Amino acid sequence: MTAYIISFIAAMILGMSKSGLKGMGILIVTMMALVYGAKASTGIVLPLLIFADILAVIYYNRHTQWKYLIKFLPWMIGGVLVAVFVGKDLSEEVFKRGMAIIIIISVVIMFLWERYEKKNIPTAMWFAGSTGFLAGFTTMIGNLAGAFSNIFFLAMRIPKNEFIGTAAWLFFIINLVKLPFHVFSWKTVTQQSLLIDLYLIPGVLLGFIIGLKVVKLFKDQQYRRFILVMTAIGGIIILLR
């Protein structure tokens, strides 16, 4: 019963995250990993992410900025393909350590970036390439792409709704790309994992509805700060696990 409660809360947080309350991905990953294990949990979380992506795409579609998505997506797909082969045989302990390192680096980079907020928006290909590749690699390894994609979109100075709408399509596409690898290569998406997902989908839907109401309360600058704070909290949580 305790495991189900933790999972349901994680599903609600997932729904809230996809509604626009970014930066909470590590909370979801940490809670699900505690219940199901680091690697197995990725296969349980992925179908829930796709379901929430569909909700987000429907709601925020009109705000999507395709020029940023096209610039970022190919690099992200490249990161996914590399991670498929690197991560297939990784042990549980390596998975956990990898997640911790990813979050520490992400939080540091994001806070440093905000410190130099007055700098020009980066246009060099290396910036989109490096953040996109790392986002793809980390989303395949542990569904942790949010931190790196947040860095890119924050750097582009995209307004709140455009940020959410563009990210919605980005992750909907990339999660569909990941799905066959989880089914046929890693074998983390199974009939058993999908059965667990059926019980958790109401939590995702409830969280999404709650999240929409909360997002409307934020102004653009407040929204940027919220993303940074939530990512930092997530980093602290995984360090203390």
List descriptors.
globular; 241 residues; mainly alpha; 10 helices; transmembrane helix; single chain
Architecture overview:
This protein is an all-alpha fold and 241 residues long. The longest helix is centred in the C-terminal third of the chain and has 26 residues. It is built from ten helices and no strands. The mean pLDDT is 84.
Radius of gyration in whole Å, from Cα?
A: 16 Å
Poorly predicted spans: none
Largest sheet: none
The string of secondary-structure elements, in order, is HHHHHHHHHH
Distance from first to last alpha carbon: 21 Å
Number-wise, the strands total: 0
Helix content: over 70%
What is the overall shape?
A: globular
Oligomer: single chain
* Average predicted confidence as pLDDT: 84
Number of helices: 10
Q: Tell me the structural class.
A: mainly alpha
Strand content: under 5%
What's the helix and strand layout?
Layout lengths: L1 H17 L6 H12 L1 H23 L5 H22 L4 H24 L9 H18 L3 H10 L4 H26 L5 H25 L4 H21 L1
Concise overview:
The protein has helices at residues 2-18, 25-36, 38-60, 66-87, 92-115, 125-142, 146-155, 160-185, 191-215, 220-240. The protein is mostly helical.
